[in-house]
Amino acid sequence: MTGFITPAPVHRLIGLLLFATAIVISSTASATDSAEEIITLDHHELEQLDIRFAAVRAVQAGDGTRLSATVVNAPDFSDTVIVGFSGQLQQWHVRPGDRLEAGDPVARLSSETLLQHQQDWLDALSREQLASSALTREQTLHEAGVIAAQRLEQAEAAAILAAQQERTARQRLLQSGQSMAQLQALREGEATPGEYELLANRSGQVARQLVSAGSYLQAGEAVLSLRGEEGSWLMLRIPARQGQTLNLGQTLHLPDIGQQAEIATIDLSVDPMSQTLTVMARLAGDHALLPGQRVSVTLPVDTQTLLVPSQAVVRESGQALVFVRHSEGVAVRAVTLLPVGMHYGASNGLVAGDEVVVRGAALLRGMQLGLGGEE
Amino acid sequence: MILARIIQLALSQRLLTLLAALVLTVFGVRAMLQLPIDAFPDLSPTQVQLIIQAPGMTPEEVETQITRPVETELLGIPRQAVLRSVSQYALSSITMDFDEGTDGFWARQQVSERLANIWGELPGDIQGGLAPMSTPLGEMFMFTLESETLDLETRRHLLDWVIRPALRSVPGVADVNALGGYVRSYQVMPDPYEMAAHGVTLDALVHALQDNIENDGAGRLDQGEEFLLVRSRGSVVGLEDLAYIHVPSANGQGVRLSQVANVTFGSLSRYGSVTADGERETVQGLVVAMAGANAREVLTAVKQRLDELAPVLPESVSVEIFYDRSELVSEAVTTVAGALLLAMALVVLVLGLFLGDLRAAVTAATILPLAALATFLLMRSVSMSANLMSLGGLIIAIGMLVDSAIVVVENCVASLNRRGGVERLPRLHRIYRAAKDVAVPVAAGVLIIVIVFLPLLGLEGLEGKLFRPVTMTIIFALLASLLLSLTLIPVIASLLLRTKARPEPRLVQALGSGYASVLGYCLLRPRRVLLAALILLGLALTTLPFVGRTFMPVMDEGDLVIQVDMLPSINLEHSTRVNLMIERALMEEIPEIERIVSRLGSDELGMDPMPPGETDMFLQLKPRNQWSPGAADTLEDRLREVLDRFRGLTYGLTMPIEMRVSEMLTGARGDLAIQILGDDLTVLNELAQSLSGIVSNIPGAVDTSTSLNEGQLYLEVEVDRIAAGELGVDIAAIQRQLRSQVEGLRVATVAEGDARIPLMLRLPPVQGDAVAALEALLVTLPQGEAIALGEIARVQRTEGPVSIQRESGQRFSLVTSNVSGRDLVGFVQAAQQAADEQLNLPQGYRLAWGGEFENQQRAAARLSAMIPLSIGLIALVLFLTFQSARQAAIILVNIPFALTGGLIALWLTGAYLSVPASVGFIALLGIAVLNGVVMMSYFNLLAAKGLSAAEVALQGAQRRLRPVLMTATTTAAGLTPLLLASGPGSEIQKPLAIVVIGGLISSTLLTLFLLPVFYQLSHRRGYSP
Q1: Cα dist from B484 to B401, B449, B597, B663, B975, whole Å
Q2: A-proximal residues of B, 770-799, CB under 8 Å
Q3: Separation between Cα atoms, residue B102 and residue B92, nearest integer Å
Q4: Which terminus in chain B has less CB density within 10 A, N or C?
Q5: Backbone angles phi, psi at B214, to 5 degrees
Q6: Cβ contact A49–B650 (<8 Å)
Q7: What per-residue confidence (pLDDT) applies to B900?
Q8: Quick one: pLDDT at residue B1020?
Q9: Which residues pair with A196 in a beta bridge?
Q10: CB atoms < 10 A from the CB of A179, how many?
Q11: Chain-wide mean pLDDT for chain A?
Q12: At B896, phi and psi to the nearest 5?
């Protein structure tokens, strides 16, 4: 075994040799890289062969893959006004297009159920008032030593119970959409029992009346559609592979109308039927887009790369080549490309301003392979 | 004796003979008018071609799944000579050549039966079968449809459904190929995401489309005492009908087609295009004639049908003809007919000069039209066609067929002029005796020439097909002339010739006196004469290495074809654009070009399958009289100059018929075609590239090329069987989906009147990076869900072959080269040597050398066996005629000396030793022998009178000077038009005329001087006192 152990100085020598060899190899390789292949062509030839050039530029936001998206209302906006108690819609107070603030009345309803609940509350209220005055009296009597402490305790318990019953009955009404003001009016006898005003739960614009006056409605039924002040969103289905590369906060572009949208949500699961992810994006700025409208969007791209038109690229043994304008004709350049929309982004091999051949690449490739004339 | 009886019969029944001549004239003229006329004889072997279209398949898949199984099935067919195939993108083309003489219908039947056996085992969506029954020369008529208002799609529709059906019904038309433009189709373009969302599978879509577009009959229904025919209408009338088709979906409810797909009019994937004049794309019709069809009749009928169609076509549409074989045919026929008439005039002139008697000249010349008509009659009876070769044979024969008549007439004139007892005989009897005296040598002479030409009937292959008509015509003409000169000529002589003695013409007298003194000198110094002859022979032989060799001179067809090869992977759009650029440059810089029509890629029938990077560019040239002086000589160079500027593509220059003949013979184009046979496509390609380099360095090599058979870019989808299997997806389903994505699936055909419009199912075209796009392609799972292709398959770019060529079951690559400025055989030898030295062939790989050079070698081998046999036969005839081996030998010894003139003439004119030149030498052989026979037979006549050898030689030669000079001069006169002709076909006949005329000079001189010397030398002992 000792024969296989190499003394340390020899190790170092081998290391040095390997290092030197690596340097030689790498310098040779870089020399080869720098000596790019030139296809000699003069101006006249380029013209005759109808070779066209285009300067490469940085990839821009709108260069990404185009997909179609649908305009939708903002997803976190409760966009309908819901009936709290079953009953008949007596009168609409608003029309589609009206702007509303939260709490604005939208319609009046009459409801047996409401009447019952109102009655329950009014009963509970009067019981609560009675229990309260009884407690006050018993406290006075107890302080005067007229009654025993036990009587006072019974009165206190009755008052607490009555207050609780009143709160429960009130809460039932409040939860069903009645406001404190409405309850107050009812208590003071200013409101007609069994009737109530349906109120807008948010500010917004009336989009549509979902039912007509006179309709009998069940509790929980929507009667009015509101368009939120938060504006429209975009919904798009993105093939799972592309969707996985997206991040929240990235910008989608609507190149046809010059708008942008910020990605707000990305589904965490793929729809097995269509192998897509649903992505929602918040539209920015003013626009005239309406819910349901289909628009074209481009996905975000890496703007650090240079855009190479797809017609400029030829392939050789798995390597992508482009032809770049050179003082003597065109130079053959190997490039590393990533798909960017309909074209490619080059991360190396080109610098901004390089002119690549965008027409006639097949002829140049033929020349590169030695085709030409009377071979 | 028989000959004497024939002459006797003819002279005793003069009226009957003249009547027979009249009948011959009538039937001859009728036969002449009825003869099928074509530019060329039918050169193709019995050939059956199979064309199988396999949409979307790559060359290797086509080879594996179609070509190989079919080839294996076909291999057992008897009488097959060659089995070749090309497998390329979406197309398998298999060609089977049969042995000579195999019946075409039988061959097709055999192939058809075998194909039926295997068809069921081939992939399901293939189309095609036997190609039309045509020959590669069947492309006779090409035109484009031009219109300023109608688009390409509409014009193509007109071509496909109005013009093509009309022309196909013309008798003799095998098919009409339509090229270029766009073929209209109904297009259903499903949205894969909508399909996935609704759970609609591709199969469901296909079935829904197939099941909802046809009418049907339900039967007969009785109503009262009548019946009704029940018909259900389901045919599609427009896009709306398609949009409402119900497609089953996963939830069972189904959707309307328009919910999941966009229904539009579109066009089929294009495999080729046609461009014209560097200005525009256009559509082209190509009339393919049946094998053996009468070109003139077919094309006349085609043009007549096109005229009839003109009112039916929209006003703005015009049919622009750019290739019409009948033009070549009529030019060729005009060339030959002109030569024929000129030959006749010259012959009459020569006869007049030598005989000094117009009546005698006319008598002898009568044989010319009659023998020609008799030849037409015989040609018609054996179903030969009149073409460049057969009519050329007639011209060659003219000078010779008058010979027998000359000999007879000359003897008749001599006999009628002679004094000394014979004048007491009746005039008719004197004619009879004169004709009888020369009957045997005349018959022997004709027989000898017929024997000389017999070896040509033994030629095989292309040369056999080309020269058999020549030989047959010559033999027919000579036999007719023999019969006529022994029957009709004596009769006419008896009617026309005068008995009054006439002095010999001054020309003959002058020649005679000069000849007598020179011959006397020669006979006194025989050794010097022999020495001079040997020196001449030696000189002629020294020219041999300087005379180039080629198989067949190139015929100027009047039209040029430029074959352009671009990068194999170039797409149709860009190759079309490059084509237009080349056309524009050519139109601008070459003023002789009238029109250019280029055919790019493959045609619809697949008869000439080419990838999108290959072009046949047809140049229609202006009439020659519009060219500037000297333009013809520089035309090819100027074309090359323009084409050389288009770097990045290779090209070759050829002509329409030449191109097809080359392809037919070797499956490739070029003088030299080297096959490299082996298994591995990469190795074959590498070897082909190296060999191409080696061959192109050999002096004389032009247009050397090997098609870039690698470099076709592939996008390979390799399905992960385990992943696909777990999800229950068939590989076939994935492949179908891919097909519908890329090429489109032809799911049905919609009937629109007579038109059949394909209904295509095509997913939206791939955009952006193809790998990413295919990886994202959704494959519908059996449960209605979908998965991206990239999840179950690897998509990668690779490179592969453009096409796979096979011969007799083995793959091969091909290097072709044309040869310019040097002889083909020498070039091939140099190439073979260079290949042996420089090309390192791995084990299992071999070279096969073919092309025109192959034909030349075969012809040489055949002729080298047949010519000695024919010389033996001639010797036998000579021996039988003269009953003397010595005399036969003297005449045969004359032959090599006679050939010297031919060789020297070739060397002087720079013409190549080719098959036509060889035919010239063969003719020369016969003429030399014939002269010898004429001379020798008279020597014997004199010898029988007891004259000494010297006297016999001197007097005999003097007496025979006139007939020998006359036969030689008339033959030369007959061929002179060929020397001067410049029309199509003249290139083939010119070398022949050069050899014969050159040879005639030497042969006549030697017959006049050497033969008497030989005779004197060989007979001195026998007759010397």
Answers
A1: 10, 17, 52, 44, 22
A2: 771-772, 775-776, 778, 784-788, 790, 797-799
A3: 24
A4: C
A5: -115, 150
A6: no
A7: 87
A8: 65
A9: A109
A10: 15
A11: 82
A12: -60, -35
